[in-house]
Fold this protein.
Amino acid sequence: MPKNRLEPDKWVKRYANYMYNYTIVRVNDHEIAQDIVSETFLAALRSKNNFKGKSTERTWLIAILKHKIIDHYRRKNTIKGSAEVRVDWHDEEQEGDWLEQRVEDERNLNISDVIENKELGAAILECLDTLDETHAEIFRLRTIENYETEAICNEFDITPSNLWVIVHRARKAMMECLQKNWI
Amino acid sequence: MWRIIKCDNACTTCDKAQYNEASFREKFCLVLHIIFCKSCREYVRNNRKLTKQVHSKLEKLDPDIKAQMQSEIESELGKTSDV
Protein backbone atom coordinates (compact mmCIF):
# COMPACT_ATOMS: atom_id res chain seq x y z
CA MET A 1 0.00 0.00 0.00
CA PRO A 2 1.49 3.34 -0.95
CA LYS A 3 2.02 5.25 2.26
CA ASN A 4 1.34 8.90 2.92
CA ARG A 5 -0.75 9.57 -0.14
CA LEU A 6 -4.38 10.53 -0.09
CA GLU A 7 -6.96 8.29 -1.69
CA PRO A 8 -10.24 10.07 -0.98
CA ASP A 9 -12.38 7.56 -2.86
CA LYS A 10 -11.41 4.91 -0.30
CA TRP A 11 -11.86 7.01 2.83
CA VAL A 12 -15.37 5.85 3.65
CA LYS A 13 -14.48 2.20 3.27
CA ARG A 14 -11.25 2.49 5.20
CA TYR A 15 -12.01 4.89 8.02
CA ALA A 16 -15.73 5.67 8.32
CA ASN A 17 -16.53 3.19 11.10
CA TYR A 18 -13.37 4.00 12.99
CA MET A 19 -13.94 7.75 12.79
CA TYR A 20 -17.58 7.32 13.70
CA ASN A 21 -16.61 5.42 16.85
CA TYR A 22 -13.89 7.92 17.63
CA THR A 23 -16.55 10.64 17.49
CA ILE A 24 -19.33 8.82 19.28
CA VAL A 25 -17.31 8.29 22.46
CA ARG A 26 -16.73 12.04 22.49
CA VAL A 27 -20.09 13.53 21.52
CA ASN A 28 -22.46 10.77 22.61
CA ASP A 29 -25.04 11.33 19.88
CA HIS A 30 -25.34 9.16 16.79
CA GLU A 31 -26.69 11.73 14.39
CA ILE A 32 -24.24 14.40 15.43
CA ALA A 33 -21.41 11.89 15.12
CA GLN A 34 -22.48 11.00 11.59
CA ASP A 35 -22.66 14.65 10.64
CA ILE A 36 -19.25 15.36 12.10
CA VAL A 37 -17.68 12.44 10.21
CA SER A 38 -19.14 13.48 6.89
CA GLU A 39 -18.21 17.13 7.54
CA THR A 40 -14.68 15.95 8.24
CA PHE A 41 -14.47 14.11 4.93
CA LEU A 42 -15.60 17.20 3.05
CA ALA A 43 -13.27 19.51 4.96
CA ALA A 44 -10.41 17.11 4.28
CA LEU A 45 -11.22 17.13 0.57
CA ARG A 46 -11.23 20.90 0.48
CA SER A 47 -7.83 21.08 2.14
CA LYS A 48 -6.29 18.05 0.52
CA ASN A 49 -3.64 20.19 -1.11
CA ASN A 50 -2.32 21.04 2.35
CA PHE A 51 -1.48 17.40 3.00
CA LYS A 52 2.29 17.23 2.95
CA GLY A 53 2.61 13.46 3.24
CA LYS A 54 4.52 13.70 6.51
CA SER A 55 1.89 11.81 8.46
CA THR A 56 -0.31 8.93 7.42
CA GLU A 57 -3.67 9.52 5.83
CA ARG A 58 -5.39 8.26 8.98
CA THR A 59 -3.49 10.57 11.35
CA TRP A 60 -4.28 13.51 9.11
CA LEU A 61 -7.99 12.69 8.95
CA ILE A 62 -8.13 12.22 12.72
CA ALA A 63 -6.48 15.61 13.24
CA ILE A 64 -9.22 17.23 11.17
CA LEU A 65 -11.85 15.19 12.97
CA LYS A 66 -10.58 16.46 16.34
CA HIS A 67 -11.01 20.04 15.16
CA LYS A 68 -14.52 19.28 13.98
CA ILE A 69 -15.40 17.79 17.37
CA ILE A 70 -14.06 20.86 19.16
CA ASP A 71 -16.02 23.08 16.73
CA HIS A 72 -19.13 21.14 17.61
CA TYR A 73 -18.67 21.90 21.31
CA ARG A 74 -17.93 25.56 20.60
CA ARG A 75 -21.15 25.84 18.61
CA LYS A 76 -23.08 24.09 21.33
CA ASN A 77 -21.72 26.44 23.96
CA THR A 78 -22.56 29.50 21.90
CA ILE A 79 -26.14 28.35 21.52
CA LYS A 80 -26.43 27.59 25.24
CA GLY A 81 -24.80 30.89 26.15
CA SER A 82 -27.22 32.97 24.14
CA ALA A 83 -30.22 31.09 25.54
CA GLU A 84 -29.00 31.79 29.03
CA VAL A 85 -28.69 35.51 28.36
CA ARG A 86 -32.37 35.62 27.55
CA VAL A 87 -33.42 33.56 30.53
CA ASP A 88 -31.41 35.59 32.99
CA TRP A 89 -32.01 39.00 31.51
CA HIS A 90 -33.92 40.32 34.53
CA ASP A 91 -31.45 39.24 37.15
CA GLU A 92 -29.41 42.41 37.22
CA GLU A 93 -27.10 41.67 40.11
CA GLN A 94 -25.61 38.34 39.22
CA GLU A 95 -26.14 38.19 35.51
CA GLY A 96 -22.70 39.12 34.16
CA ASP A 97 -20.53 37.01 36.41
CA TRP A 98 -22.82 34.10 36.44
CA LEU A 99 -23.03 33.84 32.68
CA GLU A 100 -19.31 34.07 32.17
CA GLN A 101 -18.57 31.49 34.78
CA ARG A 102 -21.20 29.25 33.42
CA VAL A 103 -19.87 29.32 29.89
CA GLU A 104 -16.32 28.78 31.01
CA ASP A 105 -17.30 25.86 33.18
CA GLU A 106 -19.15 24.25 30.38
CA ARG A 107 -16.19 24.47 28.08
CA ASN A 108 -13.77 23.03 30.63
CA LEU A 109 -16.13 20.19 31.30
CA ASN A 110 -16.27 19.33 27.63
CA ILE A 111 -12.53 19.40 27.23
CA SER A 112 -11.97 17.14 30.18
CA ASP A 113 -14.66 14.86 28.83
CA VAL A 114 -12.77 14.62 25.61
CA ILE A 115 -9.50 13.82 27.35
CA GLU A 116 -10.69 11.55 30.11
CA ASN A 117 -13.48 9.59 28.58
CA LYS A 118 -12.63 6.16 29.88
CA GLU A 119 -15.52 4.29 28.46
CA LEU A 120 -14.69 0.85 27.15
CA GLY A 121 -15.29 1.99 23.60
CA ALA A 122 -12.76 4.76 24.09
CA ALA A 123 -10.35 2.33 25.78
CA ILE A 124 -10.51 0.03 22.77
CA LEU A 125 -9.64 2.89 20.43
CA GLU A 126 -6.88 4.08 22.74
CA CYS A 127 -5.34 0.62 22.90
CA LEU A 128 -5.47 0.49 19.13
CA ASP A 129 -3.26 3.57 19.10
CA THR A 130 -0.60 1.84 21.21
CA LEU A 131 -0.15 -1.00 18.71
CA ASP A 132 2.47 -1.21 16.01
CA GLU A 133 1.15 0.91 13.16
CA THR A 134 0.79 -1.81 10.52
CA HIS A 135 -0.67 -4.25 13.03
CA ALA A 136 -3.18 -1.66 14.17
CA GLU A 137 -4.10 -0.82 10.60
CA ILE A 138 -4.73 -4.43 9.65
CA PHE A 139 -6.62 -5.18 12.85
CA ARG A 140 -8.71 -2.06 12.35
CA LEU A 141 -9.57 -2.86 8.74
CA ARG A 142 -10.45 -6.47 9.52
CA THR A 143 -12.30 -5.93 12.78
CA ILE A 144 -13.82 -2.46 12.64
CA GLU A 145 -14.22 -1.76 8.94
CA ASN A 146 -15.13 -5.38 8.13
CA TYR A 147 -12.69 -5.80 5.28
CA GLU A 148 -12.48 -9.30 3.82
CA THR A 149 -9.24 -11.17 4.53
CA GLU A 150 -8.51 -11.36 0.82
CA ALA A 151 -8.99 -7.62 0.29
CA ILE A 152 -6.47 -6.84 3.03
CA CYS A 153 -3.97 -9.33 1.61
CA ASN A 154 -4.22 -7.67 -1.78
CA GLU A 155 -3.94 -4.17 -0.41
CA PHE A 156 -0.91 -4.88 1.79
CA ASP A 157 0.57 -7.45 -0.56
CA ILE A 158 0.84 -10.18 2.09
CA THR A 159 -0.21 -13.83 2.25
CA PRO A 160 -3.15 -14.98 4.39
CA SER A 161 -0.78 -16.67 6.83
CA ASN A 162 1.11 -13.37 7.23
CA LEU A 163 -2.21 -11.74 7.89
CA TRP A 164 -3.18 -14.20 10.61
CA VAL A 165 0.19 -13.79 12.32
CA ILE A 166 -0.35 -10.02 12.36
CA VAL A 167 -3.95 -10.38 13.53
CA HIS A 168 -2.76 -12.72 16.29
CA ARG A 169 -0.14 -10.25 17.52
CA ALA A 170 -2.57 -7.38 17.33
CA ARG A 171 -5.26 -9.27 19.24
CA LYS A 172 -2.80 -10.35 21.89
CA ALA A 173 -1.57 -6.79 22.35
CA MET A 174 -5.17 -5.53 22.48
CA MET A 175 -6.08 -8.09 25.15
CA GLU A 176 -3.09 -7.13 27.26
CA CYS A 177 -3.74 -3.43 26.87
CA LEU A 178 -7.43 -3.75 27.73
CA GLN A 179 -6.68 -5.94 30.72
CA LYS A 180 -4.24 -3.37 32.00
CA ASN A 181 -6.35 -0.29 31.40
CA TRP A 182 -9.85 -1.57 31.80
CA ILE A 183 -11.47 -3.90 34.31
CA MET B 1 0.73 -36.04 19.34
CA TRP B 2 -1.47 -36.03 22.36
CA ARG B 3 -2.47 -32.42 21.92
CA ILE B 4 -3.76 -33.09 18.37
CA ILE B 5 -2.42 -29.75 17.06
CA LYS B 6 0.32 -27.36 18.12
CA CYS B 7 -0.44 -24.31 20.23
CA ASP B 8 0.42 -21.99 17.31
CA ASN B 9 -2.16 -23.66 15.13
CA ALA B 10 -4.69 -23.62 17.92
CA CYS B 11 -4.24 -19.87 18.35
CA THR B 12 -4.56 -19.23 14.62
CA THR B 13 -7.75 -21.28 14.49
CA CYS B 14 -9.10 -19.35 17.42
CA ASP B 15 -8.26 -16.04 15.71
CA LYS B 16 -9.91 -17.20 12.49
CA ALA B 17 -12.95 -18.31 14.43
CA GLN B 18 -13.38 -14.74 15.70
CA TYR B 19 -14.04 -13.76 12.08
CA ASN B 20 -16.00 -16.91 11.21
CA GLU B 21 -13.20 -18.14 9.00
CA ALA B 22 -12.27 -21.38 10.76
CA SER B 23 -13.37 -24.62 9.13
CA PHE B 24 -15.29 -27.28 11.04
CA ARG B 25 -12.25 -29.52 11.15
CA GLU B 26 -10.06 -26.72 12.53
CA LYS B 27 -12.59 -25.88 15.20
CA PHE B 28 -12.92 -29.53 16.15
CA CYS B 29 -9.14 -29.81 16.61
CA LEU B 30 -9.14 -26.62 18.64
CA VAL B 31 -11.79 -27.94 21.01
CA LEU B 32 -9.82 -31.14 21.56
CA HIS B 33 -6.63 -29.16 22.04
CA ILE B 34 -7.99 -26.85 24.71
CA ILE B 35 -9.23 -29.75 26.78
CA PHE B 36 -5.58 -30.47 27.52
CA CYS B 37 -3.88 -27.13 27.08
CA LYS B 38 -4.43 -24.59 29.81
CA SER B 39 -2.67 -21.64 28.17
CA CYS B 40 -4.65 -21.99 24.94
CA ARG B 41 -7.83 -22.32 26.95
CA GLU B 42 -6.99 -19.00 28.51
CA TYR B 43 -6.23 -17.48 25.11
CA VAL B 44 -9.53 -18.68 23.67
CA ARG B 45 -11.39 -17.17 26.58
CA ASN B 46 -9.69 -13.79 26.31
CA ASN B 47 -9.98 -13.77 22.55
CA ARG B 48 -13.72 -14.34 22.70
CA LYS B 49 -13.98 -11.61 25.28
CA LEU B 50 -12.14 -9.19 23.00
CA THR B 51 -14.47 -10.02 20.11
CA LYS B 52 -17.46 -9.49 22.35
CA GLN B 53 -16.13 -6.18 23.61
CA VAL B 54 -15.38 -4.91 20.14
CA HIS B 55 -18.77 -6.00 18.84
CA SER B 56 -20.74 -4.59 21.72
CA LYS B 57 -18.85 -1.35 22.14
CA LEU B 58 -17.86 -0.33 18.65
CA GLU B 59 -20.67 0.64 16.37
CA LYS B 60 -20.96 0.20 12.67
CA LEU B 61 -22.33 2.87 10.42
CA ASP B 62 -25.45 2.07 8.48
CA PRO B 63 -24.53 1.05 4.89
CA ASP B 64 -26.93 3.68 3.51
CA ILE B 65 -25.15 6.41 5.42
CA LYS B 66 -21.80 5.15 4.22
CA ALA B 67 -23.09 5.19 0.64
CA GLN B 68 -24.31 8.75 1.16
CA MET B 69 -20.90 9.82 2.49
CA GLN B 70 -19.23 8.11 -0.45
CA SER B 71 -21.43 9.92 -2.96
CA GLU B 72 -20.82 13.27 -1.22
CA ILE B 73 -17.08 12.67 -1.52
CA GLU B 74 -17.39 11.64 -5.14
CA SER B 75 -19.43 14.68 -6.10
CA GLU B 76 -16.95 16.94 -4.30
CA LEU B 77 -14.09 15.19 -6.08
CA GLY B 78 -15.90 15.71 -9.39
CA LYS B 79 -16.23 19.43 -8.67
CA THR B 80 -12.55 19.91 -7.86
CA SER B 81 -11.34 17.95 -10.86
CA ASP B 82 -13.48 20.11 -13.17
CA VAL B 83 -11.80 23.30 -11.98
Q: What stands out?
A: Chain B touches chain A through 29 residues (CB under 8 Å). Chain B has a mean pLDDT of 88. The radius of gyration of chain B is 21 Å.
